[in-house]
Amino acid sequence: MSPTEYVRDAEADLDLELVVRARSGDKDALTQLYRRHERRAYNLALRTLGNSWDAADVCQEAFIKAFRNLDSFKGEARFGTWLHRIVVNAAYDHLRRQKTEPMDSEILDSLSGPTGPAEVVATGRGGIDPAVDGLSDPLRKALMSLNEGFRFAVVLCDLLGYPYDEAAQILGVQEGTIKSRIFRARETLAAALLEAGYEGPGSAGHAGEPSAGRNH
């Protein structure tokens, strides 16, 4: 067992212990679970939705649903994997609601005025603080231009460091589908970054942002 695998197993054991305690009514265990996973869950929502407000809403919704349904967690996957599946589902639901009930960017512009909140990104909605997002502007915009399925795959694997098999569990697809989406997403990202004038290595996986490394 590699050191990374050993740490991941230890983390999984601690999560399982906290879940057992939380099921028995231990509120401190719930708090610990939240603190252990909140940032990673938020980053997943932020980098797939492209808006900090939406990400916070989706993350909160996912935690509420997860904690209300702890009894359905069987321990067959890591708690983080199970939780991130809920985050992904909540994010997809949010995107579907956006398509049917869009918030016009013109309304936001009229409310905020010329000195309103942060820049408008590729989604056409409110901005992101780059210090929080951790992505360069060209990569963030290229990422948001991807098909949703490709975007979720590349965020999970290349930005959050999930191995292909766990990303497949989170997205509910075959591992081969994840590999195909990652390959095509990297090609699309590389082309978008080059078009934007980004001078970086030829691979999107290394285009100025850290790649997971564990998947190769």
Structural account:
The chain is an all-alpha fold and about 220 residues long. It folds into two domains: about 100 residues, RNA polymerase sigma factor, region 2, helix turn helix motif (Rna Polymerase Sigma Factor, Chain: A, Orthogonal Bundle), CATH 1.10.1740; about 80 residues, Orthogonal Bundle (Arc Repressor Mutant, subunit A). About 65% of the residues lie in helices and about 0% in strands. The chain contains ten helices and no strands. Helix 1 packs across helix 2, helix 2 runs antiparallel to helix 3 and helix 4 crosses helix 9. The C terminus is likely disordered.
Write the layout of secondary structure elements.
Blueprint (H helix, E strand, L loop, with lengths): L2 H21 L3 H23 L2 H17 L10 H22 L4 H8 L17 H4 L3 H8 L3 H12 L4 H8 L3 H21 L21
Helix pairs in contact: 1-2, 2-3, 2-4, 3-4, 4-9, 7-10, 8-9, 8-10, 9-10
Our count of helices gives 10
The global form is globular
For the CA atoms, what is the radius of gyration?
A: 18 Å
Helix-strand makeup class: mainly alpha
CATH architecture of the largest domain: Orthogonal Bundle
Order of helices and strands: HHHHHHHHHH
Q: Please, what is the average pLDDT? A: 79
List keywords for this structure.
single chain, 216 residues, mainly alpha, Rna Polymerase Sigma Factor, Chain: A, Arc Repressor Mutant, subunit A, 10 helices, 0% strand, disordered C terminus
Short précis:
Helices cover 67% and strands 0% of the residues.
